[in-house]
Amino acid sequence: MSGPRILIVDDEPVVIKSAERVLKSEGYDVEGAAGGREAILKLEKGGYDLVFTDLKMPEVDGLTLIKWIRKSSTVIGIVIITGYPSQDTIKDALELGIIDYVPKPFTPSVLLDVTARAVEWTQGRKPREEKAHEEFPPAMAAELDRVIEHYRKIPGSLIPVLQRAQEIVGYLPPVVQKRISKGLNIPEAEIHGVVSFYSFFTMKPRGDHNIRVCLGTACYVKGIEGVVSKIRDTLKIDIGETTEDRKFSLEGVRCLGACGLAPVMVIDQETFGAMSPRKALEIISRYDSTVVAAAAAEPGADLAEKES
Ligand code: FES
Questions:
Q1: Cα end-to-end span (Å), the chain
Q2: How many angstroms is it from 263 CA to the middle of ligand 1?
Q3: Is the separation of the CB atoms in 259 and 218 below 8 Å?
């Protein structure tokens, strides 16, 4: 198989099994390792592009495994799968160049979303991709350079620089991350990790209105999947995509901190709770009335549910 080869490392067999089931259903080449030691034995044989690892494991824990991987390879992408990571642990892992993290328990959508980004990252590490990123409007580049220059000597300025860069360019594609990496002398992998970790950063251009759907556990249990599939079918975009007319982007996030209102959707800065598929479409149509027509045209659109 020519696709990316993924190793899932976790001491809980059920985590490996469910990740394998989800990823294999999408055609990924996946294997499991029951701990850090077994993972190292497998990785020594080579051939893996991505490693998803738990942090707390007996004998060889996740951070030790990540350090080992980073010593032997800079192109293997690493994602952590963990229950309740502390900010310190995340910081340590980011410094070691992880791409992202998947919270436990994870939903299939979150796992697939993170995997797609991680695969993109591993492909971006291959030299053949280098020249594809060199289209960057000179005016934006100059403005970005001014921002980098302003923050260059200020410690801990990566996040403000990324925020300003996103305001200037609209999103944070690899070419922007690379420029910031050079300007601030911070490894690209670390920048990529930060951009992937915080949901307010995006690597893809956004539409006029950004729809964020919460894929966290509380929202998942209360039915956000139905809301997502309704939006997907109506706007004809998947999570992480923007409509062709650039009016809407759809983004999946892990918890919007409003679990009591689950399931939750946010459009731009406005939060909407207790979402149902129909309510979501009604709200989206306030931003673009043509969505109403699209929703109404769907057979049985009004019969799909009863509001409580
Ligand atoms: S899980 Fe959706 S807001 Fe917390």
A1: 49
A2: 7
A3: yes
Instruction: Please tell me if the CB atom of residue 213 comes closer than 6 angstroms to any atom of ligand 1.
Output: no
User: Is any ligand 1 atom within 6 A of the Cβ of residue 264?
Assistant: yes
> Each residue of 192-250: pLDDT tens digit?
888 888 877 888 777 889 899 998 889 999 999 999 999 999 998 988 788 888 889 88
For 53, the 3-state DSSP assignment is strand
Containing structural domain, residue 72: 5-125
Q: What's the CATH number where 247 sits?
A: 3.40.30.10
- Picking from 68, 96, 125, the residue at the C-terminal end of a domain is 125
| Same-domain status, 121 and 11 | yes
pTM exceeding 0.85: no
The verdict on 168 and 261 lying in the same domain is no
pLDDT tens readout for residues 250-259: 888 878 888 9
259, two tokens:
């679990």
CATH classification of the domain holding 98: 3.40.50.2300
Question: Which of 264, 271, 275 should be mutated for ligand 1, with most atoms under 8 A from CB?
Answer: 264
Q: Domain boundary at 93, 125, 157, which?
A: 125
SS3 content of the chain, % helix, strand, coil (to 5): 50, 15, 35
